[in-house]
Fold this protein.
Amino acid sequence: MNGESILNGAWTPCFPNPALAPSFRLENGKLEMASGDEGRVFGYCESRVEALPEAYYRFDVAFFLNANQPLPSGGMSDPYANTNLLRSVLCLVEWETGRGAGRLNAQEIMSKFLLRDETVYGSLICRAPRGTRCAKLQLGLRYAANMKIVFCGAVWHETEPPKPRKAKIGVCRWNPAKEEGADAYHAQLARLLESAGVAACDLFLLPEFCDTYHWKENLLSAVALTDNPTVKTAAEYARKHHMYVIAPVAERDGDCVFNTSALIGRDGRLAGKYRKTHLYWPEVCCWGLTPGDDFPVFHLDFGKIGIETCYDNWNADVCKLLALKGAELILMPNEGYDPLLMPARAVDNRVYMAVSSLAFEGEVYNAKGEKIGREEGMIKTAEIDMDERIPPYPVAGGCCNYAMGARRSVHNSVSDRLYRELALAFNKWENTDEGFIDPRGDISGDLAR
């Protein structure tokens, strides 16, 4: 943390409900806040600093996380540690714009933290809105019993705008089962990949089951990803055009066959994979596939991506988990999908969504749920900037008030009970009746493409 700490200046305590106020003490450049047995405390200390309209600023803090209790085993890097303590620490910027009494000001909330040598370091880069007169820095404690936070540093300074993280995403609608034989299939695949390369895509997404041009006949005869002809062809064009390619194929691993999306790097090498976790029922009972059980997020050179496949998208928690794990763009290869769900997933999680399909149009959605793809040869493309994910409902403005179901730092619930009860309900043997009667009569569908 570079710069002179402003904790030696004037800080004013703010307690919206005095009956639930934590204690505070500012002494020798350290701000200490503590709670007693009451776990629903809420309060913060505030300091005004200079800020110019539309300028970029960086806010850095350092603090000891809960001086009354030991840090979680494994620190903040342990995904299974009890890190609820961090949610109780508030580090915010409120922009004062002189909008008038009773008008809410935009607020930015810090969500990037790093644990080093028992000290937590946090940082936030934000842009002052038009009409800004000053900024109010707020350091606080909420919703934690018997907790003490000691802020030992706080720095505020103007900074350069972050570099854009732009990428061109390509999607398509393509059903290889309509091709006639292996030669026709591979020729069509090559044309699609070449079209994406000529369009200068940074990432191109193929549809689910993009290697099953003989539908249902070759699923159990699947091979390992490194031996799959479709993956090999995708790797060739990824290397040729220096682009990422997602190739969803059938993958054999021992006795199991998975519905797998292979991530191929710009160098043509296999960079990762996602195995579909929520299989459409015929995939299991008719075609013998096995579900995966992992939800990876991949770090590409322009940002973080996650993958969910077709029926996964009917489970909103898959998308939420990927976003909570840092995904900024979520790719959804599929056979068919409900277009009404895509804007909801994008808006709920403040992410870009990219869709390629066997049966429906390929589309790219921004964080407002708007379609932003445009036709370019055989495919659709969209140029995106990972740092520009503007939600549709800013309320009072600033990232603190955005409608973002997957932003951990903005969860204003007093605990993680919602998620614990979800897990309990999911694993409960006795549950609600899931049967239903459809009054339409014959609802049998054709499982063939």
